[in-house]
Specification:
By secondary structure, this protein is an alpha+beta fold. The chain has a domain at 271-342 and 369-383: Thrombin, subunit H. It has six helices and 30 strands. The protein starts with 8 loop residues before the first strand and ends in a 19-residue tail after the last helix.
Length: 461
Amino acid sequence: MILPNDDIKVITSHSSSVLQVFHFDINQPYHFMSISDNGEIIEWIFDKISKSTKEIEKCNLQRPGDDILTINKHEIRKLKKGEYIKITSIIQFNNFIAVGYDDGLILIYQAEKQPIDKKKPAMDGLQEKIEEENQSDEENHKAKEKETEKENIKPSGESMQDLISKIDYYNTFSLYYILLGHSQQIRSLYYVASKKFLVTSSDNCTVKIYDMTNGFSLYHFNLDCIVNKIVLSEKRNIQNLILFSEDPYKLIIDITKEPFSFNHYSFKYNNCSQIEKINNGYYLLGPRSVYSFDTNLEYKATYTSLDPINYSLMKIYKNNIILFDAENYLEVTSFQNLEEKKAAVDPKNKKAAAKPAKGKNDKKEEEVAKTDQYNIVTEFKVKIGNDEMTECYIYEQFGFCCCQDNNLYLVDLELKKDLKYERFNMATEDEASLQMMKILANTKTKKKKGKGKDGKKKKKK
C-alpha cells in the first residue's frame, strides 16, 4: 500500500548530502544536530507536538592544513575547483565524533559547550523571529494537542518558545586527534566503549585499532579484502570483533586480552551492506534479502522480497523493519515468525491421509517441518525525497531521514500506520459493497410458466 507523502516535512537543508543526525545531550531530548559530507553541522530544536524545528547554530568542521599533513607524510589528493574532500564514515561516542574522509584521513573532534551569552547577536535575531511567529505557533500547538489524543503521543506541554528558553549553550567542535595509517577511503568506523578502542577499515584493505586515550595506533592488519562493516560480539567475557568483507568469509579479532588473535571463517553472506543489532541477534541487509542471525552470528533464517527492487538502508522500529529501496521509498515491513510449519498434505492421497491407521490412536500427531525461507511483507510505503537515503535516525515515533538531495526529512511513523489502517478499512468496506452489488445484479426474479394470453392452453389444429 503506497501512502501519500503530503505530511513529509523538510527539517533543514544542507549545502551537500546529509550523512547523519546526532543527539548529544539526553537531558535535552529536543536538541539535535545534523552533519553533511562536506563537514557542515547544523544544530536545531525539534518540537514533537507541532513537528516544527528552529535552527540555532551552523558551523563547519575544520581539517588541518596541507602543510601539517605533508609533514606527517599523509598523501594529499589534488582537488578540482569547487571540489571538497568528502566524509565517508562518521560515528559519535561520548562527547566526540570520529570522521573518516575519502582520502584515508581520520579526525577526532571534541564537542565543547559554549554559553549562549557569547552568541548574543544571533540568538537575538532568533528570538525576534520566534516572537513574530509566536501567535501562529500557539494556534498550531493547540491543534496538535488535540491530534495527539488520537495518535497516542504524550504532549510535552511546551511550545517552541519554551524550548528556546531552556537552551543555554551551543556546541563548537575542536580538532582533538589526527589519526594516520590509511591511504584510501575510510569504509567503516567502530568504537569499543569497554576498551576505549576505535577500529577502522579502509579501501586499501587495512584494518587498524587506535587507543582513544592517547590517539596511538595499537594494531595494524594488512588484508587481501575490503572490510565493509564491523561489530562487537561478547560471550562469557570473550570479546570478538567481527569484520564483514566483500569476500565469502568473515574475519574475527579476539580483543579479550593482548596480544590480539586473528582468524577467518567461511561466510557466504558477503554481499551485506548493513548490519543492525537486535535483542536476540542481528539482521544483515542484502540487495533483496534480509538475513537473521543469533548473538553469536549463527545463521537463523532468510527473508526475501518478492519485488525486484534492491534495498539500500535498514532500520528497526519497535517490531517492524524499515527498509529504504533504490526508488526512494520508505517501506515498513513485517516478517513471519520463526515458527514450525505444518507439513503439507499430499493432494493426491487425501482419503488415505484422512483415515487413521489400524492399531493407532484416532488423533494422529501432526508432522512438522522447519524452514528458513520467508518472504518480506510490506505493510505500507511512502516516497521520501528526490535521491537515495544515506541514514535514518529513529527518535521515538519519528524518523529523521538523511538524503543525498541535501535535505533532512521528517516522517511520523505512527501517523502513517494510522493512515494505513484507515485506508485498509476503507478498502474492505468498498470490497464488501462491491460484493453486495454483484449479488443483487445476479439475482433474477423467477417467472411462472405461461399458458397463453387468455390463461388457457392453446389447442393444436
